[in-house]
Amino acid sequence: MKEYKKLWEVGSVPDFKDAFVDCVEGHYHAHSTGKVLHRDLSENNLMFDQVGDLTIGILNDWDIASSLDDNGEVSTSTARHHTGTIPFMAIDLLQSNPPAHLYRHDLESFFYILVWAAMNYDLKHKERCPIHRDIACWDSDLEQSRRSKFYFMMDVERSTALLSQVIPEFKGLVEEWIQPLWKMFYLGRIARNLAAFGQVQGYDPATDGGHITFHNFMKALGRAPRGLSTARVML
């Protein structure tokens, strides 16, 4: 069986970006067409293969993936169990009594993987550095990880300070990708809070009021979604 490589071995930011987008799109097509939700996205299962001059992203490790029911929801037998790898789990899922695992939670995991990479990956030398001290708390117990991510996602000064510490080769990606994605998740959380006070009508919890969707995620990346027939999907 062919062995694929970890994203920190990809060698350059452009190739990292291509592999990352492939994984996001493959995940979307597995969900929308295959009716399967991954539920355990982490730095270890976003991988890549080199095919000639192409860098192709591969989303691996579907061991705890769940099939979706006719309503597009995870089956009730697994929906409310803690699933995922703590540093990359969505804030909601780190609660002691987590809600049902939704597609938007996996999108949030992709975002944390992106930030984690920008803080820890030395692509030039194809190495994963020791975990940066400013996000080491993400890799802690459930409550500490939840709290530190919440502050990062809701406090613009704190998030700006953290993102100023990214590895130099990722600095361009902060403005290009990370900040637009941060804003998307921030607006989703604000919509949720306003809905709790009855100030938003027709709030959709599955997308945090329409903010957290695949198409908005891709828009934040500045990439046009490719159809299933043209996407470079390897799962």
TrEMBL record:
Lineage top rank: taxon: Eukaryota
GO MF annotation list: ATP binding; protein kinase activity
UniProt domain Protein kinase: residue ranges: 1-186
PROSITE patterns in UniProt: PROTEIN_KINASE_DOM, PROTEIN_KINASE_TYR
Gene3D superfamilies: Transferase(Phosphotransferase) domain 1
Family annotation (Pfam families): Pkinase_fungal
Protein name, UniProt field: Protein kinase domain-containing protein
Species whose genome carries this gene: Collybia nuda
Organismal lineage: Eukaryota, Fungi, Dikarya, Basidiomycota, Agaricomycotina
